[in-house]
């Protein structure tokens, strides 16, 4: 197949880990006879510095002309004092909204070799294999009115039935090819939007008789993600709850540096990026862990290009290299070797 | 001193644990020469059943005539199908709003004897001693407009400067008599209300030069509560974030059944209740853990009546009894004895 990929390295360790993922994509193209055309663009702080805008038109155009986007990371202390609206993360919010990427998928799967790094007891973390499906273009992030005076401020949490329906459908579809369970998270005892959310889930479930559905309040879910994380399969929720719960979930297995994410819409176009940040403290040192970026590239192959075999090949390579005891510094332990970003990526390519 | 206490046992295990706390209060009164006048009232499901309203006027009057309120728990499957607005938890929301109980204090402290029950590795949980200060009468819970049609729904997150100021002051005051650190949690990179929140915290801090302040985004905080919970002292945040984070925090030390809470306002009047729910599955069996209710009574003595010595006496008794290996069934381990609610309360009274 021929595909065009927009690569937006961004800030901090973004360029290093993206470059590792690009190497893997190139190898996949050779091995499986695909042609991936890459076009590079600026986003976040790098784009502010060069063009005064965290999501410049040039970047929007490059993405528009592509089948998928691979992003590194945005942000860093350099831009922390920028006015709100002109921060690196505004680039992220803008690209999501611009392309209507309403479904954010964040898988969290325990890597047996890394459980020692989990803050949870190993028996709690070892069977974790869940996917948070977060609504990404609605809710408190974008609702109007949204304004502030010296005396008061307001944000608006609004959802239309249609916005809820499409994300709920996405969750059901994913549960079908996973373990067949959806946990819908809301605050239906307090919020009107949550009551509408729950109503939509109840209506939709008839169309997916093979999927079990449970409703959970967001506060209970925040507890259960710690006390019994292995109980979850697909977790679907609105934008702000998803922001909090997916970050919470990301630390339970001790493999935060390894977690990929996808932000997609219905036609297959999507943005793929590591869950970790731009790591300003280690940027430029060549020691960043590229696993999350590489696994994000695998998600791209699976969700945007339908290349399941190729995606699985990457995922297996990552598992094997870790099990063989090759690590980057962030996840190194006694008895394992800490490699540089490049060395570790070489291992993946060999696999 | 003479004090009047409204006792609202509520539903499920509420009456059992409240009765244990009342025994402790009576003993304290005898020992320290106070007079506590108790007046009982209905709330939650019990009030719906008897009077068709989860927070009836009779109860409001009884509380109004009191110096503080001791509450058990509300809710249960019996009322799950009730229309929203007529559920047990509406009694809780109503009493908070009616009395302007804007500050919800939830201490989470590791109990060394119970660390085995923590889902976290013991070295993570062992030094935890934090207090979540949650704004309780504003934000998404009560903001208008709040409505729903078949096609869409909206909730409103609004805060006035004054609402933020008083809760932030409360957090600073508490930090002063604790370890001198406040973590203010918001989502200032997305929400206008959070930007106002952060502005108020920045302004207020000049008045508390002895307190260190840090700002944390709610998603980062959800992570750090698991990866480094011992780093927190006082955590202050808005209503919905506080709901999620305080429940998350409540499970990290493995002593959820032991956690008390206070919902107070500026004049000392307050509502005290266990963090745990109404435990419908064990209700009526006489095996519920009364520690959270007893420790809530201790918080009442401290925050509403200024009886620090008396409060500390209760807290020490609880520690000692646990260390001596006396437990209720929920926290029993090998080598400890599982007592009934009454037997365990007897131990506390002896201490
Ligand atoms: C940077 C920020 C605006 C963003 C969000 O809140 O969505 C981030 O936390 C994320 O989860 O991708
Ligand atoms: C019962 C519910 C309305 C309540 C809340 O969300 O405030 C509860 O979760 C709590 O934290 O006390």
TrEMBL record, chains A, B:
GO molecular function annotations of the record: 3-isopropylmalate dehydrogenase activity; magnesium ion binding; NAD binding
One cellular component term from this protein's GO annotations in UniProt: cytosol
UniProt entry tagged with the keyword Transmembrane helix: no
Top EC group: oxidoreductase
Keywords: Amino-acid biosynthesis, Branched-chain amino acid biosynthesis, Cytoplasm, Leucine biosynthesis, Magnesium, Manganese, Metal-binding, NAD, Oxidoreductase
SUPFAM superfamilies: Isocitrate/Isopropylmalate dehydrogenase-like
Pathways per UniProt: Amino-acid biosynthesis; L-leucine biosynthesis; L-leucine from 3-methyl-2-oxobutanoate: step 3/4
Annotated site residue numbers, Important for catalysis: 141, 187
EC number: 1.1.1.85
Localisation per UniProt entry: Cytoplasm
Biological processes per GO annotation: L-leucine biosynthetic process
Record domain Isopropylmalate dehydrogenase-like: where: 4-348
Any one Pfam family match given in the protein's UniProt record, by short name: Iso_dh
Binding site for substrate: 96, 106, 134, 219
InterPro entries in UniProt: IsoCit/isopropylmalate_DH_CS, IsoPropMal-DH-like_dom, Isopropylmalate_DH
Catalytic function, reaction form: (2R,3S)-3-isopropylmalate + NAD(+) = 4-methyl-2-oxopentanoate + CO2 + NADH
Binding-site positions, NAD(+): 76-89
Cofactor section: Mg(2+); Mn(2+)
Binding residues annotated for Mg(2+), in chain numbering: 219, 243, 247
Cited function: Catalyzes the oxidation of 3-carboxy-2-hydroxy-4-methylpentanoate (3-isopropylmalate) to 3-carboxy-4-methyl-2-oxopentanoate. The product decarboxylates to 4-methyl-2 oxopentanoate.
Similarity section: Belongs to the isocitrate and isopropylmalate dehydrogenases family. LeuB type 1 subfamily.
Subunit and interaction comment: Homodimer.
UniProt xrefs under PANTHER family: 3-ISOPROPYLMALATE DEHYDROGENASE
Protein name in UniProt: 3-isopropylmalate dehydrogenase
Species in which this protein is naturally found: Edaphobacillus lindanitolerans
Name of the gene this protein is made from: leuB
């Amino acid at each position: 197949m021929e595909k065009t990929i927009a690569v937006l390295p961004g800030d901090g360790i973004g360029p290093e880990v993206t470059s590792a993922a690009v190497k893997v994509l190139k190898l996949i193209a050779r091995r499986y006879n695909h042609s991936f055309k890459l076009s590079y663009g600026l986003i976040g702080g790098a784009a502010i510095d060069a063009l005064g805008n965290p999501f410049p038109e040039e970047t929007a155009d490059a993405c528009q002309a592509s089948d998928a986007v691979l992003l590194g990371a945005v942000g860093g202390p350099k831009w922390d004092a920028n006015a709100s609206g002109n921060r690196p993360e505004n680039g992220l919010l803008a690209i999501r909204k611009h392309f209507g990427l309403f479904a954010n998928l964040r898988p969290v799967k325990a890597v047996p070799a890394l459980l020692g790094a989990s803050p949870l007891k190993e028996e709690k973390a070892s069977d974790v294999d869940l996917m948070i499906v977060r609504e990404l273009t609605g809710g408190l992030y974008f609702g109007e009115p949204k304004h502030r005076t010296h005396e008061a401020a307001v944000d608006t949490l609004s959802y239309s039935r249609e916005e809820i329906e499409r994300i709920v459908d996405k969750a059901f579809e994913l549960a079908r090819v996973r373990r067949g369970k959806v946990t819908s998270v809301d605050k239906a005892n307090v919020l009107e939007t949550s009551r509408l959310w729950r109503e939509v889930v109840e209506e939709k479930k008839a169309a997916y008789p093979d999927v079990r559905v449970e409703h959970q309040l967001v506060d209970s879910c925040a507890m259960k993600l710690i006390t019994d994380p292995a109980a979850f399969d697909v977790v679907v929720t609105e934008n702000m709850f998803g922001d909090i719960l997916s970050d919470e979930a990301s630390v339970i297995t001790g493999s935060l540096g390894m977690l990929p994410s996808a932000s997609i819409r219905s036609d297959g176009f999507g943005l793929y990026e590591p869950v970790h940040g731009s790591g300003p403290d280690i940027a430029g040192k060549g020691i960043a862990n590229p696993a999350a970026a590489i696994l994000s590239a695998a998600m791209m192959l699976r969700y945007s290009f339908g290349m399941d075999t190729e995606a699985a090949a990457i995922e297996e390579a990552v598992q094997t290299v870790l099990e063989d005891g090759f690590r980057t510094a962030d996840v190194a332990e006694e008895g394992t070797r800490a490699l540089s970003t490049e060395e570790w990526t070489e291992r993946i390519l060999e696999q």
